[in-house]
């Protein structure tokens, strides 16, 4: 089959399109990328916070918790807009660029992509995603110290401080560990609950305990990294590197790479940290998609194909590597172009279909999702039916 799905009945499951003729991937071969039912299970298993939480933590640079939405601004504006995002007060805009996280969103569920990138609906921060952000911050800033001082004990000790810094930037994270029954409670960095959000009240024992457990989990992830890589022997060329390029087609690709190593020979290694577990080998292609995306961007920017892509899974203590070739990356470029065409088509027509999978359990937008009895917000952009006529905003349902 052209679409790469071996059996049309698979389309009823992960894809959400009820028949082959309705499948927008039929002509572009996206289902062959590994976003099958099995892949979504792997994503669930690999990251408690759901897929994208790792890349959200690192990939948005500023967000992390709830970064699926917070990072959405990267699709509609330049790097300066990354701190904005869902609920930022900016008006809806058509997407102008693609990042690995949002490409993954669209492949998972077009309606989820719409909610995050176009509607910018707010999302709740999660402890798992926030932990990923803190761990990424430690692994980035650890290299500020001289090589001999990059110890596991020192890195563990950085965790509470990085959490406090994140909390200072994003005070809304204070509620992560508050008692679910306490109204509008907030928790300071030490676990105290502030009833009015300004002055810490008496410490809430349960909240403090949850925070302590969460910090210990983050410290364990940081410590595990030392069993996988030796920072005393590494001098990264770049950390948290923002990259952006425009393909000949005009498609803009952007993202943030956790770490770039350059060997004395000039060979480049792209490294990404995952706080979840490694997927089973048969699902590795889906996990490598983000890395190949970055490799393509680096190739276009620097003219050299990165020698190695390396995924470091702190949750399971695995390191997955892949050495890409030019043919690989040209294939990724073709797939991204096809994906972008599908996104542009959906943007123009307003046809963003839900694609229910097991991952819906981590979706913050069930209340707006028809698959769960919800109604999406009025589509905020102009829509164009196939004849090209412009339909005023909010009238998509009349097409
Ligand atoms: S709940 Fe709806 S919008 Fe969210 S991922 Fe599932 S199908 Fe998509």
Describe this structure as you would to a colleague.
With 399 residues, this protein is α/β, with parallel strands linked by helices. The protein has four domains: 1-33, no CATH class; 40-124 and 332-398, no CATH class; 127-233, no CATH class; 243-325, Lambda Exonuclease, Chain A, CATH 3.90.320.10. The chain has helices at residues 37-46, 53-59, 67-70, 100-108, 110-118, 127-141, 152-169, 205-228, 284-302, 326-349, and strands at residues 97-98, 186-187, 193-194, 238-246, 252-262, 268-274, 308-313, 318-322. The strands form two sheets. Strands 1, 4, 5, 6, 7 and 8 form a six-stranded mixed beta sheet that branches. It has a two-stranded antiparallel ribbon with strand order 2-3. A hairpin with a 5-residue loop joins β4 (238-246) and β5 (252-262). α6 crosses α8. It starts with 36 loop residues before the first helix and ends in a 50-residue tail after the last helix. The model is unreliable at 1-74, 77-89, 181-203 and 391-399 (pLDDT under 50). Bound molecules: iron/sulfur cluster. Iron/sulfur cluster binds at residues 109, 111-112, 354-356, 359-360, 363, 365-366, 369, 371-372.
Count of the domains: 4
How far apart are the termini? 31 Å
What's the helix-strand series?
HHHEHHHHEEHEEEHEEH
| Arithmetic mean of pLDDT | 76
Largest sheet: 6 strands, mixed
The number of E-state strands comes to 8
Domain PD-(D/E)XK endonuclease-like: 98-370
Keywords: ATP-binding, DNA damage, DNA repair, Helicase, Hydrolase, Nucleotide-binding
Biased composition (Gly residues): 46-69
InterPro entries: PDDEXK-like_dom_sf, PDDEXK_AddAB-type, Restrct_endonuc-II-like
């Amino acid at each position: 089959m052209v679409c790469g799905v071996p059996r049309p009945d698979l389309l009823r499951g992960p894809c959400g399109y009820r028949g082959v003729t309705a499948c927008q991937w039929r002509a572009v071969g996206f289902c062959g990328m590994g976003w099958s039912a099995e892949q979504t299970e792997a994503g669930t298993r690999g990251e408690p916070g759901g897929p994208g939480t790792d890349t959200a933590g690192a990939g948005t640079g500023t967000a992390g918790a709830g970064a699926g939405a917070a990072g959405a601004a990267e699709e509609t504006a330049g790097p300066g807009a990354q701190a904005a995002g869902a609920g930022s007060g900016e008006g809806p805009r058509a997407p102008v660029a693609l990042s690995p996280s949002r490409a993954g969103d669209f492949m998972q569920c077009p309606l989820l992509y719409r909610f995050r990138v176009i509607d910018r609906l707010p999302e709740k921060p999660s402890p798992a995603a926030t932990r990923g952000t803190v761990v990424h911050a430690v692994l980035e800033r650890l290299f500020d110290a001289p090589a001999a001082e990059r110890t596991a004990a020192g890195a563990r000790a950085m965790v509470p401080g990085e959490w406090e810094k994140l909390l200072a930037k994003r005070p809304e994270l204070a509620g992560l560990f508050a008692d679910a029954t306490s109204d509008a409670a907030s928790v300071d960095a030490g676990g105290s609950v502030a009833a009015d959000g300004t002055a810490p009240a008496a410490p809430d024992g349960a909240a403090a305990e949850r925070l302590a457990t969460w910090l210990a989990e983050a410290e364990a992830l940081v410590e595990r990294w030392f069993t996988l890589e030796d920072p005393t022997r590494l001098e990264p060329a770049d950390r948290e590197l923002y990259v952006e390029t425009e393909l000949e087609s005009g498609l803009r690709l952007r993202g943030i790479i956790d770490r770039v190593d350059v060997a004395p020979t000039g060979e480049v290694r792209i490294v990404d940290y995952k706080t979840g577990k490694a997927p089973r080998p048969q699902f590795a292609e889906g996990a490598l998609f983000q890395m190949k995306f970055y490799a393509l961007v680096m190739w276009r920017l620097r003219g050299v194909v990165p020698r190695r892509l390396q995924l470091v899974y702190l949750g399971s203590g695995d390191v997955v590597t892949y050495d890409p070739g030019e043919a690989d990356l040209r294939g990724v470029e073709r797939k991204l172009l096809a994906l972008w065409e599908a996104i542009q088509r959906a943007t123009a027509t307003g046809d963003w279909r839900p694609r229910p999978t097991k991952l819906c359990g981590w979706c913050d937008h069930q209340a707006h999702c028809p698959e769960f009895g919800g109604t999406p917000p009025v589509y905020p952009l102009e829509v164009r039916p196939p004849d090209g006529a412009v339909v005023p905003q909010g009238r998509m349902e009349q097409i």
